[in-house]
Each structure stands twice: as structure tokens, then as C-alpha cells.
Design a protein that fits this description.
Layout lengths: L5 H10 L6 H13 L14 E3 L4 E2 L2 H10 L5 H4 L1 H7 L9 H16 L4 E11 L9 E13 L6 E11 L5 E12 L7
């Protein structure tokens, strides 16, 4: 008999789908009991701005690991000599997709942790200024809009605008993200 550690048993148990809808209800009760910090669809207010308290200093290891794990061999990210002698920046740039992931990741605890069903997409992504190793990023998220799902009454779509700033208050990244969120009830918010 295979004995799995407790976290894996929970994941396996939650992966089972019941035709009666019991799974969805039991997950919602469990999430409420565990105190996940994410908000439900009804709890988001258009125009609200989250100033996320988590900040993160980007390291050389972050940049090298992310770039190599995603098969991006660009010297701009990995080669100090090249960056110093062949670029206008004089040092390696942090991979912009790492910056995007970090920006969204920092927002999760305050917004969607434990209450999201899925990301639906990201648009209007831009990187107005570069990020370098040693930069400390902070993030703000604005709720742009929200609407109830037409196909799933216990869900809604929330549109976020994320912005990341370095330690000097300079905007280094922005994007619009749509998240498919659990709702507490089928009633209109």
C-alpha cells in the first residue's frame, strides 16, 4: 500500500470529482475553515487598490535560474561581460517574464490565494524600465472590473491591473489580468 504524506493525500482527495457537486461544496467549507487569505468574487470592489505589503529583492540566482529553466540563453540576461561591453545598460537585465511572474505572484496572497479557479489571460503587458539584480520590487493591484460568469453561477471574472515599482518608485512592469474566481453564492453582488 502506498502511503502519501498528508499534503499529497489532501491534493489527491480534492482532485476527485463527485457527480453530486459534493466536491465543490466540501472544498468551499474547507477553504473557509483554513482561512485562506484570498477574496471571493463578491468581495472585490471596482476601483479598489491593493498596496501589497510583500516586497522582493531580485537576485542574480533568480535571473539565472529562471532564464536557464525557460531555455532562454540570451546573453543580455546571463553574460556579465556582454552586458557591460555590448549593451546600453552595462549589466545584465532581469528576464522580463520573471518580472511579470513575480509581480503577479506578489499580488496573490491579498487577492486570489485559495479563491481563484484559473487565470484567464494577461494583456497590455509592458516593461517601461529595466529590472536589475539587487532591485527590490513592490506591487500595487487595482480592481478594474468584475462580472458574474454566464456559464457558472458560483463564479465570476475579475479584471486586475498590476503595477510593479522598484526601490526608487519607478514603474518597471504593468499588465492587465483576468482571473476566474469562486463566488460565495449565486446571488448578484
Amino acid at each position: 500500500m502506498l502511503i502519501l504524506p498528508a499534503p499529497f493525500r489532501v491534493l489527491l482527495r480534492e482532485a476527485i470529482t463527485y457527480p453530486t457537486g459534493r466536491r465543490r461544496d466540501s472544498l468551499r467549507k474547507k477553504r473557509d475553515r483554513t482561512g485562506m487569505p484570498g477574496l471571493y468574487f463578491e468581495e472585490f470592489e471596482e476601483g479598489h487598490i491593493f498596496k501589497h505589503p510583500i516586497r522582493r529583492t531580485v537576485t542574480e540566482t533568480d535571473n539565472v535560474l529562471f532564464s536557464t529553466m525557460t531555455m532562454n540563453p540570451a546573453a543580455l540576461h546571463l553574460d556579465h561581460h556582454y552586458a557591460e561591453t555590448e549593451t546600453e545598460f552595462g549589466k545584465p537585465l532581469v528576464n522580463s517574464l520573471f518580472t511579470l511572474g513575480l509581480m503577479i505572484g506578489i499580488s496573490v496572497n491579498d487577492t486570489t490565494h485559495g479563491t481563484t479557479i484559473a487565470n484567464l489571460g494577461m494583456t497590455d503587458i509592458s516593461f517601461p524600465k529595466p529590472v536589475f539584480q539587487g532591485d527590490t520590487l513592490r506591487v500595487e493591484t487595482r480592481v478594474v472590473s468584475k462580472r458574474r460568469s454566464k456559464s457558472r453561477p458560483l463564479a465570476g471574472i475579475v479584471t486586475f491591473e498590476h503595477k510593479a515599482y522598484n526601490q526608487h518608485g519607478v514603474e518597471v512592469a504593468t499588465c492587465i489580468r483576468q482571473a476566474f474566481m469562486h463566488a460565495k453564492s449565486t446571488e448578484e453582488a
